[in-house]
């Protein structure tokens, strides 16, 4: 079983893409709604909360946990992979994030390659990243892109209130005003240069991708995180088939929440129309 972890609803944009891509595999989703949003939290809190979520997925039989959240991936993924997992007693388990696949797609360079290679070392495009405050302040997108494409100009824009506004179901017009302002701030930073490529580095943003396209330019290539993550996982599972456990016939993907299932299921419609409701996470040791 493969487990997806997110601070709340946003990771469902990734979850749905994975269910479509891998209809025969067993998945479970855990949203940490009790502690959402993560976007403005301290790094150490994000690491602790993410580790607790991953442990719950492991306790349910998942061998692979995908952090379907840019904030958790940017802040906690490497720490958990390198500092926690090896001595945790979860041998044969792994954690993947959603930042690495986006960096690979944006730089056209495999994650394992951490120095500039021809022809990407001569790439002098502008790449924009829109994310939560904590994703942007982690600097991880800039750092990882610059390692592979040192001539690229990277402009990161924190969109402090946007994920929350999407989750609250605010009107499209209101979201449009917010996106326009975040794009304006980004273009201030690039001195008006329209980026060639854009990473929407927050799992909520695919829901309003059209607004970003509208305020950027038709020539800008928007990297679709759900598709990129599905491509990347497909490649990973070919190399690590042990994590690709087939589902038992008829079983439905479970949606678990640390929050109040009745309350969090109310806004599910925005992310996944006609999805089954969330169930309360029963904590396992
Ligand atoms: N899912 C988070 C992300 O992709 C955003 C929501 C939050 O702030 O918790 O960054």
Write structural notes for this entry:
The chain is an alpha/beta fold and 285 residues long. The protein has 2 domains: 2-98 and 227-280, Rossmann fold (3-Layer(aba) Sandwich); 101-224, Rossmann fold (3-Layer(aba) Sandwich), CATH 3.40.50.1860. Helix content is 43%, strand content 15%. The chain has helices at 12-21, 43-59, 70-84, 99-107, 133-138, 140-148, 162-167, 172-189, 209-215, 225-239, 261-266, 268-271; strands spanning 2-6, 27-31, 64-67, 94-96, 126-131, 153-158, 197-201, 221-223, 254-257, 279-280. It has a 6-stranded parallel β-sheet, sandwiched between helices. A 4-stranded parallel β-sheet has the order 6-5-7-8, with helices on both faces. Helix 3 links the parallel strand 3 (64-67) and strand 4 (94-96). Helix 1 crosses helix 10, helix 2 (43-59) packs across helix 3 and helix 4 (99-107) runs parallel beside helix 6 (140-148). The protein is globular and about 50 Å long. The chain starts with a strand and ends in a 5-residue tail after the last strand. The mean pLDDT is 96. It binds D-glutamic acid. D-glutamic acid (DGL) is lined by residues 6-8, 10-11, 36-39, 69-71, 132, 135, 163, 202-204.
């Amino acid at each position: 079983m493969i487990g997806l972890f997110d601070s709340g609803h946003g990771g469902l944009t990734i979850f749905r893409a994975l269910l479509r891509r891998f209809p025969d595999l067993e998945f479970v989703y855990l949203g940490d709604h009790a502690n959402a949003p993560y976007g403005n939290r301290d790094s150490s809190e994000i690491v602790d909360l993410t580790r607790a979520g991953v442990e719950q997925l492991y306790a349910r039989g998942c061998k692979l946990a995908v952090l379907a959240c840019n904030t958790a991936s940017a802040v906690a993924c490497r720490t958990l992979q390198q500092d926690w997992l090896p001595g945790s007693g979860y041998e044969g388990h792994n954690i993947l994030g959603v930042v690495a696949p986006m960096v690979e797609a944006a730089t056209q360079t495999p994650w394992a390659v951490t120095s500039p290679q021809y022809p990407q070392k001569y790439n002098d495009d502008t790449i924009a990243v829109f994310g939560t405050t904590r994703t942007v302040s982690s600097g991880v997108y800039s750092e990882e892109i610059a390692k592979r494409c040192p001539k690229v100009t990277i402009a990161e824009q924190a969109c402090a209130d946007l994920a929350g506004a999407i989750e609250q179901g605010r009107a499209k017009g209101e979201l449009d005003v917010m996106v326009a302002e975040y794009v304006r701030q980004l273009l201030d930073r690039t001195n008006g240069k329209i980026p060639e490529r854009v990473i929407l580095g927050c799992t909520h943003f695919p829901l309003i991708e059209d607004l970003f396209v509208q305020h950027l330019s038709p020539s800008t290539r928007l990297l679709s995180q759900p598709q990129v993550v599905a491509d990347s996982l497909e490649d990973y599972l070919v190399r690590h088939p042990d994590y690709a456990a087939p589902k038992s016939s008829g079983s439905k993907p479970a949606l678990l929440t640390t929050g109040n299932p009745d309350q969090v299921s109310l806004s599910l419609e925005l992310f996944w129309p006609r999805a089954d409701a969330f169930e309360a996470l029963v904590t396992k040791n």
